[in-house]
Amino acid sequence: MTEQSGQGQTLDNLLTESRTFPPSDEFAQQANAKADLYEQADADREAFWAAQAEQLTWETPWNQVLDWSNAPFAKWFVGGRLNVAYNCVDRHVEAGNGDRVAIHWEGEPGDGRTITYADLLREVSKTANALASLGMRTGDRVAIYMPMLPEAIFAMLACARLGLTHSVVFGGFSAEALRSRIDDAQAKLVITADGQYRRGKPAPLKAAVDEAVAKTPSIEHVLVVRRTDTDVEWTEGRDVWWHDTVDGQSDQHTPEAFDSEHPLYILYTSGTTGKPKGILHTSGGYLTQTAYTHRNVFDLKPESDVYWCTADIGWVTGHSYIVYGPLANGATQVVYEGTPNTPHEGRHWEIVQKYGVTIYYTAPTLIRTFMKWGKEIPAKYDLSTLRVLGSVGEPINPEAWIWYRETIGAARTPVVDTWWQTETGAIMISPLPGVTPAKPGSAQRALPGISAKVVDDQGNEVAAGGGGYLVLDKPWPSMLRGIWGDEERYRDTYWSRFADQGFYFAGDGAKYDLDGDVWLLGRVDDVMNVSGHRISTTEVESALVSHPTVAEAAVVGASDATTGQGIVAFVILRGGVAEDEAKGANAIKALRDHVAKEIGPIAKPRQIMVVPELPKTRSGKIMRRLLRDVAENREIGDVTTLADSSVMELISTGLKDTG
Ligand code: 6R9
Q1: How far is the CA of 420 from the centre of ligand 1 (A)?
Q2: For the residues of 393-404, what is the DSSP string, one character each?
Q3: Is the pLDDT of residue 131 over 90?
Q4: Nearest to 659 by CA among 613, 624, 607
Q5: 3-state SS assignment for residue 167
Q6: Residue 608 CA, distance from chain mean position
Q7: Ligand 1 proximity of 284 Cβ (cutoff 6 Å)
């Protein structure tokens, strides 16, 4: 999320995309969501959300749907009490679905585990008993620093069951990142593993915990899952093995109900400046909206679907769409431990074929990587079970959308482009499959029950065809309840930009097309200003990706004596395109002309560089800040949040080689 808000005039709206894909009659007829969902929600928003909340099991009903009297601090389902883990596990077993598979777990080395809902109930109960035996009490914070193992999910649900607040820290983060997060939340326990498989090799994990915990006196215990048999240092009394502590516990545990606003978890997002923000989510509203969106946006049929979200549980997508939403709905899902090209570039498609995956949810960065690897790879597998494809994390370029639908979805499946944030907790803007005629590249419309607007600098809604800032103008059930321990920062970061109107400012630029559909245009900090025109990086990137030789593009504005900023583009070629040829002066000119044709001469990049990789965060978002350093010939800034810190070197050396 951004700390500062954009200023100046609104964005120029340049790229046009007119292809649409209406849902098939067959899909529409069987779809969970029907068009009247929008009307129902518009007629009475609170009644609509109450109806969604009724899909959960409450111990005590609420007496008020929404209390917004202390805005921007919301309370949803006031007075209601429920247990989140009971809703995700026990109630499915009680309903007679204990034999249904909850998790098909696939390890990176090829090992696997099948976990039914009855198994899940036993494991979560044992874990809850173990956490209680370690002295954890309702309200305590627990850090979870783990690879994608079933135990990570057991741990999250055991916390929810006991009313402990978890803080999952992505397993690729450093000891220092873990330390600052433990410290901020004053966590008492860390759950981790000895090591984790990464690209076919075991890598140590507990070592980073030892380093972090040496400087965090709040930690009383470290609970360690054995995964890779890596040698670990051991601090007697503090460190305990999972198999010693959890396995022998009783598999019976009676859940207690907690207040609807009981803190469920903290998840840290890195800001552009300063220390990471601990985004706080609570129970009833969060579970209501994650379950509702998962059911309608993915058209989930729990009895027959096999769902797979490829995110890591270290990100909000893993929290809402691996753990809470799908499990609240009683889904059967695949959880995969490893990387997409271990041991080969067809691994995801092999998994889709093996488990008969029907719903697949991933990020544009991975779709563009698949494009780069080439369509021959998925062509080797049977992907005919797929019926819904989803995208999240960044704007999806129309060409990548088309490739996804055609190559993975056999030109048949709906593709849902879902816009949301760690802060929103659940999907906010997305087509509904079976209802919305899909438009490649557009997230389209706020979901029933959600209200979003594109506004200008003054907070006035822009007309159809106009661009500006994306805001959320009404509270929603899964909204963040604040930043852990920092009320002021919460108000400043999200509510000060449009304080007069009381809008939540998301930090993203967006536009309406002539039908009123929303297009996301990237973070407002990334917007370029060329000769007084505010141009979005996303639009120029999408134009580049629509050229047959380009798999992926990142665009930045570099200072320019004449135009204020000049557009500099970095492109990755598609598989099979000869690099020498594509780097030639004619090929580069062809790309520049292509952008001019797609968008207009004003958007023509000043410079285009062919690169082997792009700098990305560990959740796959392009870090344009570092590319700006390259484009402006500056020393490259802080690379600690990069997924692969050698990428910048690769880019700089590659550029020197070609001049
Ligand atoms: C869920 C997640 C949030 C930021 C958000 C925006 C970008 C996410 C998007 C999208 C365009 C989409 N973003 N989904 N942009 N289209 N479908 O990614 O959360 O890690 O907090 O990132 O990601 O810029 O503001 P988070």
Answers
A1: 5
A2: SSPPPHHHHHHI
A3: yes
A4: 607
A5: strand
A6: 29
A7: no
3-state secondary structure of 330: coil
Q: What separation in Å is there between the alpha carbon of 269 and the centre of ligand 1? A: 12
Residue 526 CA to residue 568 CA, distance in Å, equals 13
The conformation of residue 7, written as its DSSP 8-state character, comes to -
Binding residues for CoA: 198-201, 317, 341, 531
In the three-class reduction of DSSP (H, G, I as helix; E, B as strand; rest coil), residue 636 is classed as: coil
Tokens of 328: 């609240």
- Distance (Å, rounded) from C-alpha 478 to C-alpha 435? 23
**Token match 């579970």: residue?**
287
Eight-state DSSP code of residue 638 = -
What whole-number distance in Å separates Cα of residue 113 and Cα of residue 150?
A: 9
One-letter amino acid at 201 equals: K
Is the CB–ligand 1 distance for residue 395 below 6 Å?
yes
Binding region:
198-201, 317, 341, 393-395, 417-422, 508, 523, 531, 534, 545, 547, 550
Q: CA 144, 147, 148 angle in degrees (round to 5)?
A: 105
Q: Give whole-number Cα distances, 576 to 373, 573, 582, in Å.
A: 8, 8, 11
Distance CA 502, CA 493 (A): 13
Q: What is d(CA 45, CA 451) in angstroms, rounded to the nearest whole number?
A: 10
Q: How far apart are CA 381 and CA 552, in angstroms?
A: 24
How close is the Cα of 36 to the center of ligand 1, in Å?
27
Rounded distance between C-alpha atoms, residue 478 and residue 124, angstroms: 24
Q: φ and ψ at 230, to 5 degrees?
A: -70, 140
Q: Is 394 in the pocket of ligand 1 (CB under 6 A)?
A: yes
For residue 48, is pLDDT > 80?
yes
Q: pLDDT band at 188, cuts 50/70/90?
A: very high
Q: How far is the CA of 421 from the centre of ligand 1 (A)?
A: 5
Please give the residue that has the higher pLDDT: either 111 or 583: 111
**Atom of ligand 1 lying closest to residue 538 CA:** 11
Read off the tokens for 453.
């607007």
Q: Which parts are annotated binding residues for Mg(2+)? A: 545, 547, 550
Instruction: List, in order, residues 6 or more apart from 658 with CB less than 8 Å away.
Output: 583, 610
Identify the H or E element spanning 524.
Answer: none
**What is residue 656's predicted lDDT score, i.e. its pLDDT?**
56
Report the predicted TM-score, pTM, of the whole model to 2 decimal places.
0.93
User: How large is the ipTM?
Assistant: 0.99
Residue written as token pair 């999250």? 156
8 A C-beta contact, residue 480 and residue 285 = no
The SS3 assignment for 410 reads: coil
For residue 654, what pLDDT is reported? 65
CB 627 within 8 A of CB 556: yes
